[in-house]
């Protein structure tokens, strides 16, 4: 391993402005002329990341014509997300990889446009507002579990995907998509397929006539029509009785400097995509983990049964569900749905004694930091008890499933409330046995997808 600044004593952080020209560029794996490391990367993204870690905490390489640097130390992550966020913007690779139809939404917007949007939408995610969504969340979860037959084989990802989408539709846009859930699912799947980091077409511009691109364009056009219809309907009926995300957007759109039609559509698509894909994956991985760790499943049932005493979960009971919360945190550590975050340097920046030039794509791989043995004991073990106590021994940004700093996940509180309530509802009513392969392999798509569908047999309790 090449020697790097292991102490990270803050020498970089003190360097405001451009990094000195005399600093060396970061080390990294050797690449081929013209294509750099593209083929190594495409061959096996996970093995490629293993190889990167052998070069230290600041590692450079080239893929698909982009210069990349991967940061593998929590202090570097913290500087990018929290300490000096103005020196970085969202990565161009995200736009290039085909999700540009979300580009005016909160996830990908930049600068003043982002600040304005975040200010307008933040009140939707204040504690009291989010807690008012608890009831519809549980109602939808009770209905979903009720629709699973005892003994039936279920694909949790598709079941939870529909469930989390129903919840978003009800709470954020006051809609029941009915037959049109398929439109959102199809668009979400096309985005995943299109932005699969292991596939060459991820790096092709979206207008090329590759099959994935055709599917992507068709699916996202239908999604765009769906949200356009929602906006028009709300304009026509007036939004007074709704006070939800859709009404907030429609009202803002009436101001002269408010969001354009394109921005409103992108915004709705952003929330419907970012808000359901991540949460449904988290629940899927919790269910998988429970099938593999019967003692954890038993601990969870004991806590949930004791706290609920046969009644339906409510927001009021959540403070008693501490083990439930630990199980969720541990799942987000081992299986972070947003497994890599991307940024782009806007100027030369020093990391760990290396100069990272302006215009470099940075990757912050949560999945690596979450399992780095320097910061975690027995990192590959699924052990919710590691979350007992204050955890002061673990650096803060060794764990960042919701990002950090000004651009941290706006839906974090929503997601944690939803995950706890849904998990408690599910565990109270059902148990699961895995019927698919217990060895999980992952697809490096826009989110951390299982390569093959996870399937479980449902048993009513
Ligand atoms: C387990 C569930 C979730 C996970 C793991 C997750 C993860 C993340 C992460 C890591 C980011 C930061 C990305 C970056 O820095 O590049 C983010 C941003 C975002 N998330 Fe989530 N998220 C979840 C649920 C939700 C939900 C439920 C919503 C909406 C209701 C949502 C909406 C957003 C939006 C709009 C942003 C962009 C925020 C901004 O840039 O200002 N997410 N999410």
UniProtKB/TrEMBL annotation:
Spans traversing the lipid bilayer: none
Region spans: Disordered: 1-30
| A Pfam cross-reference name | p450
Where does the signal peptide begin and end? none
Q: What superkingdom heads the lineage? A: Archaea
Give GO MF terms, alphabetically: heme binding; iron ion binding; monooxygenase activity; oxidoreductase activity, acting on paired donors, with incorporation or reduction of molecular oxygen
Q: Which UniProt keywords apply?
A: Heme, Iron, Metal-binding, Monooxygenase, Oxidoreductase
Keyword Amino-acid biosynthesis appears in the UniProt entry: no
Q: Which family does it belong to?
A: Belongs to the cytochrome P450 family.
- Recorded protein name is Cytochrome P450
């Amino acid at each position: 391993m090449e020697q790097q600044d292991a102490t990270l004593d803050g020498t970089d952080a003190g360097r405001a402005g451009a990094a000195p020209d005399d600093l060396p560029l970061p080390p990294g794996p050797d690449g081929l002329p013209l294509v750099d490391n593209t083929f190594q990367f495409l061959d096996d993204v996970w093995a490629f990341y293993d190889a990167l870690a052998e070069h230290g905490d600041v590692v450079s390489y080239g893929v698909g014509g982009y210069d990349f640097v991967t940061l593998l130390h929590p202090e570097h992550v913290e500087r990018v997300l929290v300490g000096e966020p103005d020196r970085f913007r969202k990565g161009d690779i995200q736009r290039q990889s085909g999700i540009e139809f979300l580009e005016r939404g909160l996830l990908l917007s930049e600068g003043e446009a982002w600040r304005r949007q975040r200010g307008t939408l933040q009140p939707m995610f204040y504690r009291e507002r989010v807690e008012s969504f608890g009831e519809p969340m549980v109602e939808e979860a009770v209905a979903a579990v009720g629709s699973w037959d005892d003994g039936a084989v279920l694909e949790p990802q598709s079941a939870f995907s529909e469930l989390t989408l129903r919840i978003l539709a009800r709470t954020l846009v006051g809609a029941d998509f009915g037959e049109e859930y398929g439109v959102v699912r199809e668009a979400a799947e096309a985005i995943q397929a299109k932005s699969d980091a292991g596939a060459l077409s991820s790096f092709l511009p979206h207008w090329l006539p590759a099959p994935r691109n055709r599917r992507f364009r068709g699916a996202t056009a239908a999604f765009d029509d769906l949200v356009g219809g929602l906006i028009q309907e709300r304009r026509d009926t007036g939004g007074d009785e709704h006070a939800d995300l859709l009404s907030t957007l429609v009202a803002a759109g009436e101001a002269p400097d408010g969001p354009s039609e394109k921005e409103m559509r992108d915004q709705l698509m952003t929330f419907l995509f970012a808000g359901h894909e991540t949460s449904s994956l988290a629940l899927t991985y919790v269910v998988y983990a429970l099938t593999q760790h019967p003692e954890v499943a038993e601990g969870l049932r004991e806590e949930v049964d004791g706290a609920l005493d046969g009644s339906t979960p409510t927001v009021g009971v959540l403070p008693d569900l501490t083990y439930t919360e630990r199980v969720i945190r541990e799942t987000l550590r081992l299986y972070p749905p947003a497994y890599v975050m991307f940024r782009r340097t806007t100027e030369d920046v020093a990391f760990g004694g290396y100069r990272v030039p302006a215009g470099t794509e940075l990757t912050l791989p949560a999945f690596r930091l979450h399992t780095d043995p320097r910061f975690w004991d027995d990192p590959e073990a699924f052990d919710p008890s590691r979350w007992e106590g204050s955890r002061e021994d673990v650096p803060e940004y060794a764990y960042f499933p919701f990002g950090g700093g000004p651009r941290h996940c706006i839906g974090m509180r929503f997601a944690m409330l939803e995950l706890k309530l849904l998990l408690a509802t599910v565990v109270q009513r059902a148990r699961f046995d895995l019927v698919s392969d217990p060895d999980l392999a992952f697809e490096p798509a826009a989110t951390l997808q299982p390569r093959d569908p996870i399937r479980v047999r449902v048993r009513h309790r």
